[in-house]
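seq/struct pair 1
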Amino acid sequence: MNKVKNVIRNTEIDTLSDAIIRFFKADKEAQNDAFLSSAIGELELLSAKITTAILQDKRLSTLQTADGERNKAIKTLGTVLNGYAALPIESRKAQAVPLKAIFDKYAKGRITRESYAAKSSLIESMLEEFAAAQLAENIKGLEGVAESIALIRTAQDNFTKANIDFLDATVNKGASATSFNRQIALLINEKLIPYLNAMLISDNAKCADFAKNIEEEIRRINEAIAKRCAFRNR
């Protein structure tokens, strides 16, 4: 039985560990083996941890994307207001003056470069200023301004949700997914596979089906890894 390639991705080894656990729980004969029961117990713990770590990594990516959308929405409003300020139409320019003053106050403070928490606070403050009753007619009279402000509101709400999800995942993350990847690979390659190979050599029938299923799953994943590496090296 071949070992798992050492360039296996975190998601691939998570899938592999889940498959091995599933095969074991469906195999009554293999469950009677004390060594396998102990090894699979270790694998279950590591599999749960890498799943949580991968989820946290995905939520970090989602959070970064949500923050990028906030920056984009803020810049869009700035572009709209700057456009009105440059128009040779005095009535439009006059309507834009108080709105641009509010925006510039935050833009000059480089709102888009602040930390996540500081940016959230500044965005909420800026939106509160734009919501002042005396500015309603100014916003209504300038096409695109209300829509741009609404985009910031939506982007901020989406970021808040993504941040809550990220913080929830962080609480239970622990080590990195890559760290768990190495631990799982070590358990499979240096503990589980050598034992199963020894059992097959000694004609231990109660491990045969379990070993066959694992061998097939590892073969499938190793082939996928080989194809990926070959494509990358073209």
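seq/struct pair 2
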Amino acid sequence: MEKVLVTIQCIAYNQRPYIRQCLDGLVSQETDFAFRILVHDDASTDGTDQIIQEYEQRYPHLVKGIYEKENLYSRGGFRAIMKLLMEESEGKYIAYCEGDDYWTDPRKLQKQVDVMEANQAALCTHQVRSVWENGEKTDRLLPRITEDFVKDTEKFIPFLFSYGNSDCFVFQACSFLMRKDLLEFPEGRPQFMELSDVGDVPLVLYLGAKGPVVYLAKEMACYRLASKSSWSKSMRHDRNRVLRHEEKMCACFEEYKNYTGNKYDFWIDGNIAKIRFNMLMQRGEYGKIMEEPYRSIWSALPDKKRQAVMRHYRHPFLMKWYNRILRKVYGW
């Protein structure tokens, strides 16, 4: 048998409506190297595991299922799942795709491996299309960068923190191809990664500090918005949970300043300010967002958004109605 070059890690939990589309995109990859697909089912109760077993039988040379009897995420979080998958993974590279997302280009892996090899990169990512839960495509591409690039650490970290997204969600996890040796952490994970409650952002920060990052301005996967059992859907109507998450991201970024020797504090501090600004918005503390150190962020908001904030600032009862009736969390 050919030696495996890439292991694809796929995690699933109660994703029966989507998992076939996900697995179809993985098994259909056309490459000149061997790859393997690990699918972790975290004790699904909707029959997701049965579909994974079906693909194991159809593609025994490609697909291996890992089935939990008890939910692992509730006992150890994403870290426990990733640790288990890394122990089962082989090859030089790790690719990633959650069970509700899917790949759309059958040459995705080949294109990414080619540029990783050519640039000795730590991470390769690409453009991703957002789709609604029912599969309908949106016009939202992440990121909206239209040219390929290769950036070393000195350029990538400032770019990442100044791109304009307060949580650094510039790249989607379903686009990641990563060097496996960098993910083995023989001396333990850096502290900043332990402080975050999500997995994708710390990975980008960590890998960005380890070597070049390659971006391909090619739409090769789809990210499903607020699908059933997704993290984003569980956050949608829980303002307190959003605030806890943002507090953890601030702590993660503060520790990342130490990890990178304080070389990028200017850009990281600017990003932390954006998160703090959003937290004040979530709490309705509008007077503070118009003062330093947030004045420049406030001034950069679109006119319509600033006008809406001023209405709520002058008429606080509007915010109470907004929270009670619309219950919107993301995007204020």
